[in-house]
Amino acid sequence: MAIHILLLSLIIICAAFAVVRTRVIRAAIMLAAISIFVTIVLFVLNMPLAAIFELSVCAGLITVIFISVISLTNPLTVEERFEERDNMFKKFLLLPVLIIICAASFYMLTKGINFIPILDVSEAAEISDKAAMWHLKQIDLIGQIIIILTGVFGVVVLFKDNKDDKK
Amino acid sequence: MTVSLIFIPILLVILLNIPRLSGKTAYYVALAFFAYQLIAIFIPTFGSVQLAEVVNKLFRLNVYADGISKIMLISAAIVAFTALMTSKSFVKHDSRLFSLSNLMLLAVAGINGIVFARDIFTVYVFIEVIAAASYIMIVLDKTESSLEGGFKYFIISSIATVMMLFSVALFFLVAGGTGFEEISAAVHNFGGNTIILLAIMLFVSGLLIKGGLIPFHAWLPGAYSSAPAGVSIFLGGIVTKTTGTFALIRFFYSVVGFNDNIKMVLLIVGSVSVVAGAVAAITQKDFKKVLAYSSISQVGYIVMAIGAGTAFGIAAAVFHIFNHAIFKSLLFLNAAAVEKQTGRLDVDSFGGLGAKMPVTSATTAIAFLSAAGFPPLSGFWSKLFIIIALWSANYKGFALVAILAGILTMAYFLNLQKKVFFGEVSPNVENVKEAPLSFTVPAVVLCAITILAGIGFYYIIKTLIFPAVGII
Questions:
Q1: Least CB-packed of B113, B124, B210, B430 within 10 Å?
Q2: Which residue is closest to B185 within chain A, CA to CA?
Q3: Which of A19-33, A148-162, B281-295 has the highest mean pLDDT?
Q4: Backbone φ, ψ for residue B205 (5° rounding)
Q5: Which pLDDT belongs to residue A116?
Q6: CB–CB of B321/B72 below 8 Å?
Q7: Comparing C-alpha atoms, which of B397, B449, B420 is closest to residue B287?
Q8: Closest residue, chain B, to A111 (C-alpha)
Q9: pLDDT value for A167
């Protein structure tokens, strides 16, 4: 239980840093760190296939895409970065308080809930990761392929130096 | 039919990109697919049998289509066709037309995926497909307002995503799976369980955000009004209907069922949206913002009909989804025509535009009358069914709200029609001409559908909608 709480806390801390960082490259690294912690959570939960996917796709491939896109953008100057950093403290001053309030509210709302499966899910658990992915969830995989295609389009359309725009 | 309508758009996007073809080719290919989708609904074997055989050999897809799916597919095909056709007049660069055509194909694949889904996780995945494609389409022009509208949509949509994903996890925890049957069985066996209640609450909240209902509407006016013209038609016509109201119908009618608390939540959210959306629409100065708030109000009617919790209520909701998709697309199309011809959307700067743009003015008036529930147009029948459904389910107070809100609808539409199209010709529009055929032809077609669906409402209800909800 302690390891779960520790890992989830690290995920929340990394997520908060990913939001508040002024340099997008550092935000992308924080997102990769989140994926690494999620990978550990999945290993701890005995889901190695999902963990490997999380590590290779989210921490690896997606981070590479993020970094390639960031390389297409203009970096902030030193002055702009300092200015953004000053603004950051003002903008996100209440973020820790908000996180604590949200966490406390969630705890209060759910403390009476017994998060133990009502049904006997041992049968479901016996289905291997491979079977779940390639036999039961094929339509979801297709949906995810469409999301990736859309995302690639988004990157190309929104971040490329559009020659037409300059004309 | 089911398999081909998901796979063909994906294949087309791949073929259009490897090797990369021109924007014009992508545009015509996308239009051809939307036309094909419309034909395939009425002739299910039209060109899709061979593909379906190949796909079924390779994949085992848990999908199905019923009468409600058909209504959604028809609406999606008509709206996407109109939206893309309108976009061409506004898009100056070939590459932009290429991107828009591809994104609309992907978004329609997402809509079809939701419509055919038999699993709550599948619904979630395809809602994300639509959200991703919509976000990119909103910001396509890269103007400050479109980037702001897109950013709001992206952030608020992400909150809905988190809620829905958490809900899916909770359903998985209690039901041992995420299929409709498994969740339905778990809800019926352990309906009072706190985890199930929490999961239902989160999923419904997510869908209400996606549907842009009050108080979850913050993203909607900005996104609709700042998006490129064709994209506004697509968003207002079909996106919120599929990701919000259709998914709500599937979730309640096919999965978890209704109880008094659920009905009351839907009725309150729906009635607040109906009234507040209409009041906000009256105060707006921007043509597209009036239509955006009007959408909130009209979607409120649909949610109220779902909240009646009866088969007749669901039938009324489905019929209003179809009608709203058509007349709202027509209104956004005409807003685009006005923007194209005058270069502005501020309603106070117009006046007498009806004399310069008679087709646009006449079709707008018919769409307004249909939206306000004027007989014998299609909107009248669907609103009448909603009121009857509420009345017969013993929610007479909500039925009265629905009737009185019709007056508000009439007020903001008459105000808009008067300011833009009636009266003396304003100096701002003296040299304006009627919109080109690429606007007027789809406007006349959509207008004809609105009138014909009103006159032939009995046929639509009897052959498509009542069988879909089990009313004989």
A1: B430
A2: A119
A3: B281-295
A4: -60, -45
A5: 64
A6: yes
A7: B420
A8: B194
A9: 45
CB atoms under 10 Å from CB of B458, counted, come to: 9
Same structural domain, A3 and A63? yes
Q: By C-alpha distance, which of B383, B423, B428 is closest to B403?
A: B383
Distance CA B404, CA B399 (A): 9
Residue A51 in any domain: the answer is yes
Interface-testing mutation among B55, B122, B129, with chain A (most A C-beta atoms within 10 A) = B129
Cis link prior to B376 (omega < 30° from 0)?
yes
Distance CA B212, CA B300 (A): 9
DSSP B187: H
Contact state of B132 with A154 under an 8 Å Cβ cutoff: yes
Q: Which one of A139, A142, A151 has the shortest CB-CB distance to B132?
A: A151
Within 8 A of A164 by CB-CB distance, chain B residues are: 92-96
B372 with B402: CB under 8 angstroms?
no
Closest CA to B103 of A154, A65, A137, A126: A154
Q: Give me the domain span that covers residue A13.
A: 1-94
CB contact under 8 A, A140 and B121: yes
H or E segment and range at residue B279: helix B260-283
**Domain end marker among A49, A75, A94:** A94
Measuring CA to CA, which residue among B287, B289, B282, B294 is closest to residue B338? Answer: B287
Q: Is residue A143 part of a domain?
A: yes
Residues of B whose CB is below 8 A from A69:
none
In-domain check, residue A78? yes
Residue A144 vs residue B107, higher pLDDT:
B107
B20 beta partners: B17
Which residue in B93, B189, B193 is closest to A164 by CB distance? B93
CA distance B442 to B459: 23
**Interface test mutation site (partner A, options B174, B184, B190, B239, max chain A beta carbons within 10 A):** B174
Same-domain status, A28 and A70: yes
Whether chain A has a CB inside 8 Å of the CB on B94: the answer is yes
Tokens representing B161? 């995503």
Domain ranges across chain B: 1-257, 261-472
Chain A residue with minimum CA distance to B108 = A146
Q: What's the complex ipTM?
A: 0.82
- CA dist B290 and B293 (Å) reads 5
Pair (A77, A143) in one structural domain: no
**Which is higher by pLDDT, A64 or B150?**
B150
Residue B332, both tokens: 């956004």
- Terminal C-alpha separation, chain A: 60
The pLDDT assigned to A92 comes to 75
> Are A83 and A130 members of one domain?
no
Rounded to whole angstroms, the Cα distance separating B129 from B135 reads 10
Task: State the sign of the Cα–Cα–Cα–Cα dihedral B251, B257, B263, B267.
Answer: positive
| Residue A77 is assigned to a structural domain of this protein | yes
Other beta carbons within 10 angstroms of residue B175's beta carbon come to 27
Best of A123, A135, A150, A153 to substitute, by most chain B Cβ atoms within 10 angstroms, is A150
Residues B226-266 have pLDDT tens digits of 888 889 999 988 998 899 899 999 999 888 888 888 899 99
Which one-letter amino acid corresponds to residue B174? V
Residue B57 touches partner A, C-beta closer than 8 Å: no
Question: What pLDDT, on a 0 to 100 scale, did the predictor assign at position B160?
Answer: 92
Find the DSSP H helices in B256-377: 260-283, 287-307, 311-342, 353-356, 358-372
